[in-house]
């Protein structure tokens, strides 16, 4: 039944009906109490008037005046006043409203019983068996007699004992005003509860709530706003958690993909030098009488392939270390000027056909906290790449900017550059612009990938473009305190 009531009436209507029922019940109880109190007060006031008449009657009897004579002289507070004189044994000795006195004992009458106990007594409404009428009785016990006066229930007496109708109308008006005020108050509360209930249902369904309903500036409104803010924070937290989970999952999948790709590429890159070494050695073993010049040529070619394998393994080790255990790489203060000088010195030791003029423009000492080996690999791999593939004669290393937080460095050559379509892929692992030429020159395909990872390890970024005058230009940043 309660569920059916909730479905039939809104919360506002149910709350209003409850308040209306309570208000009317409270007012009804108050009116009934006030009515009874007012009626009792008027009855006591009428009784006081009748008791005063009784007292005068008893005094007159003590003075020797007959009750009939006294009743004829004094009309009392009402014209149609019934006067009765009762003996101590309960017999009626005088009644001005009867021609024949009743024989019944009157000591059992409620007003008489009360008067015998307290001296006076009254009965608000009692039917008389003698006159067949309803009376208001007042009795008083004297020394020799019991005096009783009665007023018949007629229109004047009813008016005297009736409640104040103005008060009743006033209470009715107040109740109506309270009901109207209660309607609007409960409607406002009901609307807010309905909004909060709607919000709770939407939250239960997990809906995203961007436009929250407005609530009043009161305690209920503050509680509602707190709930909405908590739900919004929960939504943001859940969204951030899901986004971080997706990002972590994507990174994990990307790592797995890169590992598989790296494994496949390494397997492919190892096949060529291993097959070459195997071919040279098998030829030497199968032909023990081969001339010394040919034998030396095969051994030199085998040594070159072994060197290529060493470089490949060294580069793979560097890549793996940055991917899997970057937090374990040791950092210390490193002066970049010293690394650049080492690169320039190494370039002087190269054969003439692989040697470039190194033009250094580093006007100030630059020191950062980082890995000496990874920082050295940045400049060394960029220099090796320019010497092997640029076809130019000059290498430029320049300090573009230096702040307390980071430095910006340019490394460029004046060679032939690369086609625009290759630029976005230069930092990918094992990517080669000219695969045959790269393998012939002993390249591993990991040099520029190592450069990008080493720059990222030191909190920087790197970009590449073709120079207007020819050649490639790399610009990268390094944070001094990563």
Account of the protein in words:
With 482 residues, the chain is of the alpha+beta class. It has three domains: 10-166, Beta-Lactamase (2-Layer Sandwich); 220-326, Signal transduction histidine kinase, dimerisation/phosphotransfer (DHp) domain (Helix Hairpins); 329-482, Heat Shock Protein 90. Helices cover 56% and strands 16% of the residues. The protein contains twelve helices and twelve strands. The strands form three sheets. It has a five-stranded antiparallel sheet with strand order 2-1-5-4-3, sandwiched between helices. It has a five-stranded mixed sheet with strand order 7-9-10-12-11. Helix 6 (165-204) packs parallel to helix 7. The longest helix has 68 residues, at 219-286. The radius of gyration is 59 Å and the shape is rod-shaped. Mean pLDDT is 78; it is low at 435-442.
Compile the SSE list and pairings.
Elements: H1 2-8, H2 11-62, H3 67-73, E1 82-86, E2 92-95, H4 110-118, E3 120-127, E4 134-141, E5 146-152, H5 155-161, H6 165-204, H7 219-286, H8 292-324, E6 332-335, H9 336-348, E7 357-361, E8 367-370, H10 372-390, E9 394-402, E10 406-413, H11 435-440, H12 447-457, E11 462-466, E12 472-479
Parallel strand pairs: 7-9
Antiparallel strand pairs: 1-2, 1-5, 3-4, 4-5, 6-8, 9-10, 10-12, 11-12
Helix pairs in contact: 2-6, 6-7, 7-8, 8-12, 9-10, 10-12
